[in-house]
């Protein structure tokens, strides 16, 4: 046995597809290649100071492997513990510090919320999936919530079991995917409130996650039957699949990369955590397969298509590992690990347009603790203050490339890109309007006359009720503001009296 083989045997290291390794010391469980030229070799993570965290938040304890947090350039949304239903917080990014227990929530679900996702084309629209078997889409006021939100813009009903996954289409407006524990994927046109595609015979077991590709023409899924599938949702057919992508019994994850390859995380038969890279055109063998450690937390992958960096956040871990994907062997290159003391309950990931380009920030995470949310900033150290165009190629902007109808008819389009050279300034978002198709069109002819007479009155009654509710809401807000002003006036007069005493 050679010296190197003896060393590997002593450490319990098997042959590794990532090339020459160095052991990083007893405090670190990760192997990495020795030296490789990359501008991201020195990326480092730093947690913000305490006063820039969001404190006193009761993060959800529900046993579900989603990230529990969604972020965009305006808001951070966090799934929280709620009695008698499901709720999530939506906080403007600047609303740091202690969050009051009475802070308004989004609380229309009757069961715990399992997943949330911000619309990529409207920073005020968010979708939520819940144990109550429904998907709800919400419009958040421009400056955040002043009252709890109980009425969604639209309720999407079609699943027979809890809905654990919601994911917006990356380039088509108002197209939303949901997946439930009924092993069904439904693709909705949120603009009409209709389920337009129902993929109910593709999966025979629970779906762990779903990911759209770059232009939204394909999806890939990981499921409990240990299969990774690449699916054309409009043709409702499987394009490629791999049985036992990871042989372990614990949950897997699969995401599309910008070049069309699929990246997966899972577990080996010996319960070691693995990552792998696959080409959908030939899924017999992985392009790369890497064993990491024996921790049992599910690895959630977050991918940046602009820099080709994948960040792996394990649930229950206290670290974020990051890797660079390239087209040269060994394809998946370990970069570094950000470590902290506290384990993470969930993680939010900021889209590229929400980052501070002046500080060379290439990623920002929102780490959920038991009672707080802590932003973590990843930066590339640079001496120059100039815009670093190699770190910030044009990135996906907030404008949709297609309308929902165009996508459902078979068109594809890549994301519309924007430059971050002068920073991203959020524009005015248009309100989400749901125009439901006339349900009378599908009724039997005999009933039509009766229905035509009754519908206008019902519509008028509904409008009247909505107006009254809106009026009540406005009056409540006015009263609340007046009460605040009265309290402040009293406080001011007391302070003036104290000043007068001191001056005397």
From TrEMBL:
Reading the lineage from the top rank, the first entry is Eukaryota
For this protein, the record's InterPro entries field holds: Coronin (IPR015505), DUF1899 (IPR015048), WD40/YVTN_repeat-like_dom_sf (IPR015943), WD40_repeat_CS (IPR019775), WD40_repeat_dom_sf (IPR036322), WD40_rpt (IPR001680)
Q: Which GO terms describe its molecular function?
A: actin filament binding; small GTPase binding
Q: Mind naming one GO cellular-component term on file for this protein?
A: endosome membrane
Q: Which biological processes are named by the entry's GO terms?
A: actin filament organization; corpus callosum development; endosomal transport; endosome fission; endosome membrane tubulation; establishment of protein localization; macrophage chemotaxis; membrane fission
Tell me the ranges covered by the DUF1899 domain, including all copies.
33-97
Q: Report keywords, A-Z.
A: Coiled coil, Repeat, WD repeat
Which SUPFAM superfamilies is this protein grouped with? WD40 repeat-like
According to the record, where are the WD repeats? Answer: 106-148, 156-198, 200-241
Q: Give the record's family classification.
A: Belongs to the WD repeat coronin family.
Q: What is this protein called?
A: Coronin
The species this protein belongs to is Phocoena sinus (Vaquita)
Q: What is the lineage of its organism?
A: Eukaryota, Metazoa, Chordata, Craniata, Vertebrata
